[in-house]
Design brief:
Order of helices and strands: HEHEHEHHHEHEEHEEEEHEHEEHHH
Number of strands: 13
Pfam families: Dala_Dala_lig_C, Dala_Dala_lig_N
Structural class: alpha+beta
Largest sheet: 6 strands, antiparallel
Function: Cell wall formation.
Pathway: Cell wall biogenesis; peptidoglycan biosynthesis
GO molecular function: ligase activity
CATH superfamily of the largest domain: ATP-grasp fold, B domain
CATH topology of the largest domain: D-amino Acid Aminotransferase, Chain A, domain 1
Helix content: 25-40%
Oligomer: single chain
Radius of gyration: 20 Å
Cofactor: Mn(2+); Mg(2+)
Shape: globular
Number of domains: 3
């Protein structure tokens, strides 16, 4: 796969990592992994931390494209993408609109529901617009348990599984400290899976589904990145036909948001009905030693280095796509 990429045409490459979000630590792990992989293939790649340097330096220093290894706000939410559009420097992953929608779990749900993509029922609480009564009534609408999370954070930061009415207030307070919008979501009991997507538009394709088996079913920040207790099953071992159905659904969800380059969709499968429910989409997924896109790619015969090279080669601009026919 890497043989098809002309390294010389990639030019001077910035790997954007670190940043200012709550996921800075993970972004540095991702970025350093990508940087080492690109360098091993002869790419003129350099680390660039937007929390420490002005993005305008990218232009002044002659960078010709960027690999975005930032996670969360100011990296995965359309802001960096918009700056790179203005600078005219192609970048990996989704463009401005798809990034800004996908970072917001509520906006993502609204688009998916409008397009017939199944996602758990939810109640939205906005900071300053709810009182104790509205909080305690959420389980009446969604049942128990309830998942409470900030609308615009990743890596399971600020997420709580609420088992009883008395725990609602604390969970909401934890989430609202991180985001003005708090997403209260119906809990789906069953298999937890994730499915990466590579490509753009009609060429987008799903990679193998990974089934996640976390200690006591708790796939939190710690179990995602810093323990070896979580099992990742690929092949996923789902009943015949289920993996293909989920892959088709995930590609549809990716396309209706206008995503490009790559992404990863998290899915819960209801144990009783076997119906899949899509939770969220990551448009700048992790690339650490524990990360799932490289794991799935490996199962499809794509090495970590080839994956990084393929993603870098796909770097583009929104404006270039729009003006292609001009």
């Amino acid at each position: 796969m890497s043989a098809a990429v002309d390294i010389r045409k990639l030019g001077k490459v910035a790997v954007l990592m670190g940043g200012r979000s709550a996921e800075r630590e993970i972004s540095l792990l991702s970025g350093n992994g990508v940087l080492a992989a690109l360098k091993s293939r002869g790419v003129d790649a350099h680390a660039f931390d937007p929390a420490e340097r002005d993005l305008a330096e990218l232009k002044r220093e002659g960078f010709s494209r960027c690999f975005i290894a930032l996670h969360g706000r100011f990296g995965e939410d359309g802001t960096v993408q918009g700056a790179l559009e203005l600078l005219g420097i192609p970048y990996t992953g989704s463009g401005v609109m798809a990034s800004s929608i996908a970072i917001d779990k509520v906006m993502t749900k609204r688009v998916w529901l409008a397009e017939g993509v199944p996602t758990p029922r939810y109640v939205l609480l906005h900071r300053g617009a709810y009182g104790p009564r509205e909080v305690v009534e959420v389980p009446d609408a969604l049942g128990l348990p309830v998942i409470v999370k900030p609308s615009r954070e990743g890596s399971s930061i600020g997420v709580a599984k609420v088992e009883g009415y008395s725990d609602m207030a604390g969970a909401v307070a934890q989430a609202v400290a991180l985001d003005a919008d708090v997403l209260c979501e119906q809990f789906i009991a069953g298999d937890e899976v994730t499915c990466p997507v590579l490509g753009t538009g009609p060429t987008a394709r799903a990679l193998p589904v990974i089934r996640i088996v976390a200690p006591e079913g708790n796939y939190d920040y710690q179990n995602k990145y810093f323990t070896d207790d979580t099992q990742y099953l690929v092949p996923c071992g789902l009943p015949p036909g289920e993996e293909e159905a989920i892959q088709a659904l995930v590609v549809k969800a990716y396309r209706v948001l206008g995503c490009r380059g790559w992404g990863r969709v998290d899915v819960m499968i209801d144990a009783a009905t076997r119906k899949p429910y899509l939770l969220e989409i990551n448009t700048s997924p992790g690339m650490t030693g524990h990360s799932l896109v490289p794991m799935s790619a490996r199962a499809a015969g794509i090495s970590y280095e080839d994956l990084c090279l393929q993603l870098l080669a796909s770097a583009s601009l929104d404006q270039a796509e729009e003006g292609a026919g001009a």
